[in-house]
Design brief:
Layout (H helix, E strand, L loop, with lengths): L1 H24 L9 H4 L5 H18 L5 H9 L1 H7 L16 E8 L14 H12 L3 E10 L7 H6 L6 E6 L7 E9 L3 E8 L6 E9 L2 E9 L7 H8 L6 H34 L5 E6 L7 H7 L3 E2 H5 L17 E5 L4 E7 L10 E6 L6
Helix pairs in contact: 1-3, 1-4, 3-4, 9-10
Length: 369
């Protein structure tokens, strides 16, 4: 019986190790060509923990099988480091830094204009949060204004950000209409250049804003990459999957798979285009936004390039930023030039959107590489 049990756990160890290695392989394959591999990255943290537990089991029993999960853990350690942090790098006050600038990234989900939260005045809570935290640069995704609404009128909304004398607002249609959806970057420092990168057949895009902080010119990228776009009907289908007949089940699964495939392909293309602009920037860069993908993904690798991840440098835990019905995943990021240093990375667990805002403190004093 013991031999049978050992054989089963050995097989499980090989499968778990193989699956973990496959998640890392997916990082190097463009989802446009092999989209199914991209899904593997979402399971990376779970598979890493499973392999760690299996390693403990085999170590306790002093069996050679311990090398199966251990080797998988070693080969994928760098990606675990991107996904989980034990300690954060902090400073007590920005005054100890030479050229500090605090940066916030937040997908505000249209300021809750359609009352997804079921609460009143969530937009006001968002304004108050930003006012309280006082970040120097704020990158908002899914920004919303309406010409037909007194509450969400553009002039009224922008007036609530009066502490930011400089702003870069872009809407997906390129011009004002009755309802406007887009990106905005607010800054306490002068904006000296603006640019916009849009894509065909999608509502997602990227904006580039050059700011000057104490004679240091920095290019800030504010991005919103393709989401899967599950509607209420898709979530209801997932919830009621066990109650469907076989025909309905396969039809629904096919529709959901199609949406996932299209989203992965679109994100890969967008990440390559934006990543090229980041790489070729003549100025040091800060990259913010909602990437809708995990740290173990082709998208993350292309967007980050040679930059540092502020969470990896100064965050802690898993840092999940998705505030939805699925398990919280880290899909919102702040990257920065390697010559800068980040401190005090924070994720604010506030129920104001389907994303949590993130903030970090950057020292924009160039360091020797």
């Amino acid at each position: 019986m013991k031999d049978f049990f050992r054989s089963i756990v050995t097989i499980i160890s090989f499968i778990a190790a193989g699956a973990l290695l496959l998640t890392v392989v997916s990082v190097y394959f463009n989802p446009y060509r092999v989209w199914i591999l991209a899904i593997m990255g979402f399971g990376f943290p779970f598979l890493y923990v499973i392999n760690f537990l299996l390693a403990l089991v085999w170590l306790f029993r002093k069996r050679w099988q311990v090398f199966i999960p251990v080797l998988a853990l070693v080969f994928t350690w760098g990606h675990w480091d991107d996904s989980f942090q034990m300690m954060s790098r902090t400073v007590d006050s920005p005054k100890v830094l030479v050229n500090p600038v605090s940066v916030m990234s937040f997908n505000v989900r249209m300021l809750d204009a359609y009352n997804w939260t079921g609460r009143k005045n969530v937009h006001e809570e968002i304004f108050q949060l930003i006012k309280k935290e006082k970040p120097d640069v704020v990158c908002l995704q899914e920004f919303y204004t309406s010409m037909t609404s007194k509450v969400f009128n553009e002039n009224i909304i922008l007036a609530r950000f009066s502490q930011y004398p400089y702003r870069h607002v872009e809407y997906r249609k390129g011009k004002r209409s009755k309802r406007n959806f887009g990106l905005v970057t607010f800054s306490k420092y002068p904006i000296v250049a603006r640019n916009c990168l849009k894509f065909d057949h999608t509502n997602n895009f990227s904006i580039q804003t050059d700011i000057v902080v104490n004679k240091t010119r920095v290019r800030v990228f504010n991005n919103h990459l393709e989401s899967i776009g599950f509607g209420k009907e898709h979530m209801n289908f997932i919830d009621s999957l066990n109650y469907k007949n076989e025909s309905e089940r396969w039809t629904g699964i096919g529709q959901i798979s199609s949406k996932i495939k299209d989203a992965f392909k679109q994100r890969a293309y967008q990440a390559e285009r934006i990543g090229s602009h980041i790489k070729n920037s003549p100025y040091p860069t800060i990259v913010c936004g909602d990437f809708n993908d995990t740290p173990v993904s082709y998208v993350y690798r292309k967007m980050r390039g040679e930059l540092n991840d502020a969470f990896v440098e100064s965050g802690s835990g898993f840092g999940g930023t998705y505030n939805g019905r699925l398990p919280s995943l880290r899909i919102d990021y702040i990257f920065h030039d390697k010559r800068f240093k980040s401190y005090n990375f924070q994720r604010y667990k506030v129920d104001l959107s389907d994303h949590f805002p993130i903030v970090t403190l950057l020292d924009l004093t160039p360091q020797k590489l």
